[in-house]
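pasting input
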Amino acid sequence: MAGGSPVAQRARSAVAAHRGDRGALLPILHDLQAEFGYVDKSVVPILADELNLSRADVYGVLSFYHDFREEPARGTVVRVCRAEACQANGAEELFEHAKKAPGVTVEQVFCFGNCALGPAVEVGGRLCGRVDAARFDALVRS
Amino acid sequence: MTTVYVPRDSAARSVGADEVAERIAATGSATVVRTGSRGLLWLEPLVEVETDRGRVAYGPVQAGEVDDLVAAGMLDGRETDHSLGRTEDIDWLKDQNRVTFRRVGVIDPLSAADYEAHGGVAGLRAALTKTPAEVVADVTDSGLRGRGGAGFPAGIKWKTVLEADSPLKFVCCNADEGDSGTFADRMLMEGDPFTLIEGMTIAAHASGAIEGYVYIRSEYPDAVATMRQAIDIAYAHNWLGDDVLGSGLTFDLHVRVGAGAYICGEETSMLDSLEGKRGMVRAKPPIPALAGLFGKPTVVNNVLTLAAVPMVLADGAAAYQAYGVGRSRGTQVFQLAGNVARGGIVELPFGVTLNELVNGYGGGTRTGRPIRAVQVGGPLGAYVPVDLFDLRMDYEEFAAAGAMVGHGGIVVFDDTVDMARMARFAMEFCAVESCGKCTPCRVGAVRGKETIDKIIAGVDREENLQLLEDLCELMTDGSLCAMGGLTPMPVRSAVQHFGEDFQRSPVPLPMPTVGPNGSHT
């Protein structure tokens, strides 16, 4: 098994860091996503081998959770809450507006727990409340 | 130097609390302490100034206004723009019974000294003088029911785990607060994390568990960071680890982070996720109390259930039991959300009416338009029309009305809401978030969305409404868990109370559909 690429090396070190943890696959995938911004599919056989799981098990987990992406996002990641409380304050219109913004990856999220100050949007990892179209544009520009 | 309190709660930060705190610190004439939020979220960022009259509040304060407010005497507690008077005298707060939330917004969440000075650790100390069975009896006598939504008596669950014979047992806290309109778990973890740690340690003592996990959703990075720091501090104070407070109890606590799957708020799905698997729902029995995490006996409780426990042990079961009505005992941390003028945290005993919460505390809609509906208990809860606002917040009274109290989240909608579209959204959400294990949920939600599309489009309306009702019945009766089993609740309540929205002039098919990652199909 090749151990040379930085991704492969990092995958092995992430496994080592969680060696004593029960059910360590999710924390390992989080570590890899935090470092690279996505989880490269090439780590699937490595993690399977290290954790004594089948490749299908590992890929099954990787593909089940919305958070893990298999390729890098384009530009800033903007996550718009589309859940009911934000919808009550116009989130659907905001989501449509957001999708037209150039140079950003727009994703839907169901709830940031900011339901009294919606619509809620996360721009580049920062949570923002009471976001209307104008504030959205300003946030994306900055 | 004057002490000024500015929340570090992520809702407050989302509207500029960090910038306000920095601006005040930059004046050089105040020490800024970051607290949780008082829960008056429409007034965030809320600034409190320590005076000889107690804390005096100002809000909402924007960073750009700080210099003017300081010049006008804010740091001396003088009356200025945005003055709200003494925090404790604010009507909205004064009439509440802050029990679980008594320290949130008051203390520095990561100060062990603050925590103890405000009554922290008293519950754990009391519990450690008792046998596990006595602690279980206290929790049972308090009438505490699961705050995650299902309302199962906590003491009965703990007793089952205590009586299970296993050298390895777990306590798991479900902090996967995925329901729209709920944020109390998050605010407690960000604002008073030691209370949750204390509650879990008491649960460990009561059930014989030696290891615990807090499963927090990834959408709550601040809560994750705060809980992790708090756990480190708790170890340093011997509130966790080996020989807790010299009692001989061993309890290790870990934080685990979810990965954006709503279904992991369902307890068995959360357990699979904690085991490093896909978050698939398990069939019950066996119940998690007997075969839970890694097949071991496991206490699984919601954040607010566990956070209520220290008070039960510190002040006694009778004190907690004295709050509430019927079989709904204690206080509930209600959350006012959506299109509401005064959103935030209202902690009151069960029995308060929906009207008192939504119109009294909430002050009606933020847009100023009439309220049309409120959704109580999250995305799987019923849409309740205004003519049922006399309902009291009580598990049984709500169930009898075809609704549910759930975790006490209330989302307000004004009269511009289209309830047929909200019903469609309930099905769409279920289709996106279903774990896929059982057919009624996995396939039913997709068919439900398609059927509502046809109704909206005016295709065979009466037949399709009947079909939708049949489908709802099947999903309710045949689904493995509450996801598929309760998705019909918002749908049926929308049809029942707002039937006219399903008879509007037809909108042609196809309606836009949003895929799992926001892609349009």
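fyi The first helix of chain B runs from residue 10 to 13.
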